[in-house]
Amino acid sequence: MTDRARRGAIGIVSLIALAAAAPVAAGQGGAPPAAAGDIVVGEWVGRCGAIGTLVPAADCAVVGAVIRPHLDEMSRVQQMMDGLRGWPQAPGLKPDPATGKSVILYVDYDRSKGGVMADTVGGYSKEYGWISFTQREMGEAAPRVETRPGPLFQPAAGDPRPPQLITREGYSGWRQLMQFSAHELFHAYQATSPFHRSYYSFSRSSTDYSVSWIHEGTAEAAGYLYQAQRLGQPGQARDTSYARALNRTADKGYDRGEFWYLLARNRNAGAPMKFLFDLHKSTDAIPAGGYEQSISWLDTQLRAAGGGLREDYGRVIAQVTDPGRYVPDGVNAYEFPEFEANSPDQAVEVRTDPVEIAGLAASGFYTIMRGKHLQPAEDRELPGSRLVWFELLIDKQEGDERVGLAVADQWVDRKPFTRLILPEGQDIGYFPRATNIDAAAPAETGAASARFNLLTRNVHLRGPGCASVGKTYPVRIDLESNPLGTNPTPEFKAQRGRFTGGDYAAPAGPGPDTLMVKARGVKGDVWAPFAKLDVRSRCNIVIISDDSRMTYDDDAKATRVEGGDGQAPAYIDAKGMVGLNDETGRWMRFPHTAIGGGHPGTMAFFDVPLDKDGLKLNALNQGPLILVEGLKLMRRDVARSRQRATESPAPCPSGGGQCIRFVHPSQPEAGIFFDRAGEPVGFEVDGVMTRIEYDGDPVVVPPA
Question: Where in the sequence is the signal peptide annotated (predicted)?
Fold first, then answer.
């Protein structure tokens, strides 16, 4: 929006003055008489002139190139609005007797009688039923440099202008003209709407803007919405302040266009313009000076469609994240309150100073988490394994019930705002906004005050160490500090698998996978890896001989040993061994030092840890896993050393399919069987077969 447009966009009172200054030719409805220079497109006639005088057609040369496409654009706007109006009356446009068309007057205000309104951009006259634009504003949309062929001067996809209007200056003039056009034509529909009495049936003083925030604000929004529809994005909204009460304007109502634009998009994302037209079906009337009545009217309309002003206002504020929109009127240099969160190592919360919020308005403040409290995780490849859980909420003891909270682009109202923070050693902050609207009686909302609570906690995420193909595993979330606040609710994703809530479902095939969590980093939201794992055919390993069975569960990091003599099984986990006392019938635990190289049943526990090529396995509780990984490493090392091992096809020990029988050169009496995926599935020593399977029951160590 140009500065001239900001200063001079026409209001209802100014339009009346404009019409009064124009001598009316008989039968001409206030417009200059028909001339040879008239341009007719569809149902519109474009006419150049000054107020009360006819300007020769030659003086329209600067805008002549843009009039025809502009009239065509007006036809598009009218066709769209006709389909949305929802009432039988046509827009308040009076046909020109000479042509029978609706008139658009392109005014040379500099040559008008008395120079009336030389700085305006145009306007709609209800009394005379025409729309005017200045020749100067039209000239800004016309070519100002020589048009030459080439990509620079060709229309972009969807550009409504003909090629001759593409100039080096870009799109700004045409974009603004489209916004002005939809704005003024929307006024013509307002003039015949059921709600028109609120605009035209009450005598208002020149300083009474009790309805202009609706009248001009919705028209501004209509312009933005049309720009967004035709060009992909709205124009630059006028300066405004949400620190001021919603029904108070500093720019004759135009500055509330952004509010109505966002409200319409929130209410009807598919057809936001229809929301503005539906509001004008109301038969209620807002009297002169009816500032409070205008708020009650809007709340009533919103409640009729479900919701209410308090919630709708909060959702608008959630989308307005620019701090400049919350600077109070008349303040040149404004410093927002700033509150610093404590270290997540401290089990306390920070309580802010009171934040003051005007009625029907919003106030902003800053929250900061210092980089010295956000040190990265030790494992740089898995930065998401250690995070910080941040919470911000309204203090229940000192937070008026009318106060709601918006943070980032989220309206949380009275609930906590929560985010996982990725520690990167740098400050991370938010600009929250507190809203103040009484849900039950919004028009009676007075000023309010509220304190806010800030809370940070260290969070550790742990995925499964191993995952079986197609199986599901929960992600472990450990809170290291601070029992206060809510439990984290992270958002996860995986490179290959998938998540349902906090449960990871492994993919259908084996291979590596990376688990990630969404967290706020210094540059915005990121997906941070917190676990890397191998997806295997099976994570449970079962070693089966004639008289015993040993089952390892990688999730539990525990092994169960079952003998063939009917005795109770024995268990080993990271803390030691658990066995059943036959005399007392109770489970008893023994430390690792008491186990040594003992043999529960007839299967030996391996007491030599495996620490090779990144594998670090505890021998006592991971015996079957050590055996399987050790066999694979042995086969690999033999191949690398070029020793003369024997590999030959053989039936698998399970009796199904073909396997590879591997014979180590130093142990010709033993054969190890590998499946096609390279997993060991059995070994044979002196004719005695021991099978290895990968589908066993979970190992649950009894409490002892």
Answer: 1-26
Q: List CB contacts of 285: < 8 A, sequence separation 6 or more.
A: 195, 197, 198, 201, 202
What confidence tens digit (pLDDT) does each residue in 22-63 have?
323 223 344 455 555 788 999 999 988 765 454 444 456 667
| Element housing 226 (H / E) | helix 212-231
Q: Are 288 and 439 in contact (CB under 8 A)?
A: no
pTM of this prediction exceeds 0.85: no
DSSP β-bridge partners for residue 673: 661, 682
| CB-based contacts of 482, cutoff 8 Å, min separation 6 | 344, 346, 347, 348, 349, 455, 456, 457, 458
689: β partners: 684
Output b/e per residue, 82-105; b: 16+ Cβ within 10 A: eebbeeeeebbbbebebeebbbbb
Per this entry, what is the length of the chain? Answer: 704
Q: How far is CA 44 from CA 38, 59, 69, 478, in A?
A: 10, 21, 12, 69
Instruction: Measure the CA–CA gap between 141 and 138, rounded to whole angstroms.
Output: 5
Find the mean pLDDT for residues 66-78. 91
Is the Cβ–Cβ distance between 451 and 399 less than 8 Å? yes
Q: Which of 164, 163, 143, 147 is nearest to 155 (CA)?
A: 163
Q: Which two tokens stand for residue 245?
A: 């009460």
Closest CA to 208 of 171, 152, 249: 249
Q: Which tens digit of pLDDT belongs to each residue from 635-692?
A: 888 887 877 889 999 999 988 789 999 998 888 889 999 988 788 999 999 889 999 9
Structure token pair of residue 24 = 């009316």
- pLDDT value at 121 more than 70: no
